Amino acid sequence: MFGKKKSKSKKVKKPTAKYKMTKAEKKRAKQRRKIAEARKKKFIGQPGFTSDSGYVEYDGYIHKYKGRYVSIFDILVKYGTHNPEVIGWLTKLIPTQQLKDGDIYFAYREKGMSKGTENEIFSKKLHSKKVTMLNSEESTDERENSKKELELADIRLTMDLAKNEHIVDSDISLVIWSDTPEQLKKTVDELRQNYKDSGIPGFMIVRKTFKQKEEFFNLFNKISANKWHNADMESVAASRLFLPSSGFVDPQGVYVGKDLESLLYNNSSIIDFNGIRHAVVITGGISVKYSLNGLEYPIQTNRAGSAWAHVIAEDNYLVNGKRTHHINLVPFDYHAPNSKVLDMQNYTLNTLEVYGTKENVEVDANDNFEKVTEIIMMLLGENAISSDQYANIRSMLKEQLIDWVVKRAGGNGIYTFDPKNEPTRAWRILATEQHQNYPTIGDFVLELDSVVARERKVGENAGDRAQLLLRAVKTAVNQYPQVFNAKTNIPDKFTYYDRNIYYDLSKLSSSRVVKGAMFLNTLSYVTNRAMPGDMIVIHGLDSVSVSPRVLKPYREKMDEKGIGLITTLEERDNKEMNIKTLNSFIYPLSTQDLVVLGGVTPDSLKDINYSWNKELPRRVCDELIANTSSRFYVYRARDLLGTVIDTHLIL
């Protein structure tokens, strides 16, 4: 039989008294549970956050200030990824594209290393490091061998610079602001992706664990001096110039190319053209790249001025809701959306019709008399007659034209010698929708027949001048009936959606004088028809021949009505039509809201400096005188900002 085993006695633990929470503590615990449950349902984020927003006030990673969230990161540079580098390479940190979810700020800090630490490095650590590396075996991994060679080269450089230089500690902090905690994370991801897309290696964005809060208060007076951060000789540290671009990076702008003067790597030029009312584009004959609706499939065009003008003028109808009137003197196939294209081979403007107002009928009529006289004399040609004859014939032409318009045009005349006291009769000269009832220069030929007979009675010379004038007007009417013997057939009304009106004169004639005469007639019509706030764009003004003197009244009218003017000059070294000779119409470059300059020559550079009343910077001249395609200098007056751009326009 087995005996009964005696059991050992067990020590019984005394029960401890259970802590009882007070009512207030129970209430707080219940509230915390409710908050945690609500957070778990609503917030999708990293674990450990305990508020509805995902973070708490005392969290070291993120802080809330004035309704926005802010956090600080450390930027580390992987060894060897930027060695060697150009001066200012640190600006590659600034992203080349606009970030969508947050705002970022970089702080680059430098401070001389303490003397004791520097002495220890120079006297012991450098030599020890070099000996260790030289005695180490060669690795089978060639990447490690390359890194070792780079380190040895850096050690030798440091030892050489140590003769005259000290060591500088430096670090880089990244501050991110956003409207929500989630956007902070998205901004970091977006920044990393930007570096990847731009092919920029080595930048590491890391969190300063337990140090974020401290950094908020010490950003400007402390730096991180440890083995994780840079310690360089003075000349090496000086190469890290952190200089952001001085070019165009407007938040609401449009992409126009790459900024060639920026220290930023591959930095985009983004320009806001809203508010630009007066601009001049001088291309110097160079071409430009442009694409339709995006950067794909770029097209090279010799009409760089027209491409630039479209980009500049776009906001006039998109943002301001006004019309833009394009006078095309050079061919350019692109037309903006919501446009009406008038091929002036098929549309005509009666030269005699006066487009003006009852209040200014006298001025408008006199300007039109001057315009018609100038057009006829342009087609007659100064070289066909002597200078004395030219002045006499011009005077006779204008005198006979006014007399005919007042007394006999349309039967009983359509104007008066005394518009102030006979306003109703004076208003008859103003254009109406009844274009078929308006006389033309062709009708004026019959008047000149009688003038010749009358002048013959005065004397032989007078008769000869009248005969020459008759021959000139007849020739003009026969050769250019669309200018002198046709009724106006341009629509009297434009629809709401006709925001861009094109008057295409580019195919009318190869003669600069003939096209100039037709341009003058069109400019008169457009200036008077355009409404206050509209814009006129003249494409290739230097492709025609016309006297700046006769253009001046129309510029004055534009100013009175608040009409903007963009002018493009697209030829190289045009001695007759350039920024200097057209000064009274275009106005000096120094008065423009925007100036775009392309290829220049020594002669054109003199004209540009004259019009600007100052010399272009040397760096700009060197770029432009090379006449490289798509390379333009852009200057905006409102913020005195200018830079050279490798241009790629988007239409």
Low-pLDDT runs: 1-10, 43-59
Number of strands: 19
Helical stretch tally: 18
What general outline do the C-alpha atoms trace?
elongated
Strand residues, percent: 15-25%
> Roughly how much helix do the residues carry, as a percent range?
25-40%
Q: Could you tell me the mean pLDDT? A: 84
Summarize the main sheet: 13 strands, mixed
What radius of gyration results from the CA coordinates?
39 Å
> Span between N and C termini?
109 Å
By secondary-structure content and strand pairing, the structural class works out as: alpha/beta
Oligomer: single chain
Region (Disordered): 1-32
Walk me through the structure.
This protein has 651 residues and is α/β, with parallel strands linked by helices. Among the domains are: 117 residues, Alpha-Beta Plaits (2-Layer Sandwich); 142 residues, no CATH class. It is 38% helix and 17% strand. The chain has 18 helices and 19 strands. The strands form two sheets. Strands 7, 8, 9, 10, 11, 12, 13, 14, 15, 16, 17, 18 and 19 form a 13-stranded mixed β-sheet that branches. Strands 1, 2, 3, 4, 5 and 6 form a six-stranded antiparallel β-sheet that branches. β15, α15 and β16 form a beta-alpha-beta unit. α8 packs across α12, α8 runs antiparallel to α14 and α11 packs antiparallel against α12. The radius of gyration is 39 Å and the shape is elongated. The N terminus is likely disordered.
Summed up, what is this model?
This protein has helices spanning 23-42, 115-135, 142-161, 181-197, 212-218, 234-238, 304-318, 361-380, 387-407, 423-426, 441-458, 460-479, 481-484, 512-529, 548-561, 583-586, 602-612, 618-624; strands at 63-65, 68-77, 103-112, 167-178, 203-207, 230-233, 254-259, 268-271, 278-282, 288-291, 299-301, 324-328, 339-343, 500-504, 535-539, 564-569, 594-597, 631-636, 641-650.
